[in-house]
Amino acid sequence: MGAGESRETHFSHIKLGDQAVEKAERTYSVQEREKLFATAIQHYQKAVEINPNYHLTYMRRGLAHQKMGDFKEAIADFEDCLALNPLFFAANFSKADCLDEIDEYELAVMERSRVPQAVRQRRVTSVEVHQEVEERQAQHSTAVKRAHTYSGFPSQSAAAGSGGKSGVARE
To answer: 44-99, pLDDT tens digit by residue?
Structure first.
């Protein structure tokens, strides 16, 4: 970690960067998107300065650069990510996508070939991953609600309305 900087500060910058990216992906204004991605990149840069050995920060910053169309900057970040964690294959795929964007097709093919065949066959889009995460979160939420219902625990709203008391008579 950087001098005087804490682990919490490092991760708070990552979180702020992630929030800016999420907000940018939901806005339709091109100017606002660019501003939000630039803010995200600044937060990721601060996180890198605090801890230059965390590969996911480079990955996140690279993705933000990629979404802004700064493909050469993105490629540099993906390479830094891979230098720290050569088995983080998402960086290979993202780097190859950027190489395609700058018409470096042969290099893109070579980059994708660095990923084991078994991993390449299972590659899914980020949309598919996002959908799966949402489905799992919904299933978990439903399961938790059922567990509370069947176990006799009050729901959070019922507990809040009764001052936190369960309403179950005790003898």
So the answer is: 999 999 999 999 999 999 999 999 999 999 999 999 999 999 988 899 999 999 99
Is residue 48 within 8 A of residue 61, CB to CB? The reply is yes
Six token digits for residue 76: 């540099």
The per-residue pLDDT for 136 is 63
How far apart (Å, rounded) are the C-alpha atoms in residues 147 and 141?
Answer: 10
Q: How far is CA 45 from the centre of its chain?
A: 16
Q: What is the dihedral of CA 54, 59, 60, 61, to 10 degrees?
A: 90
Helix (H, G, I), strand (E, B) or coil at 27: coil
Ramachandran angles phi, psi of 129, nearest 5°: -65, -45
Structure-block tokens of residue 135: 């489905």
Helices (H) and strands (E) in the chain, counts: 9, 0
Helix 55-68 and helix 71-84, axial crossing angle in degrees, nearest 10? 170
Confidence at residue 140, expressed as pLDDT on a 0 to 100 scale = 67
Q: What is the dihedral sign for C-alpha 68, 71, 73, 74? A: positive
- What's the predicted TM-score (pTM) here? 0.66
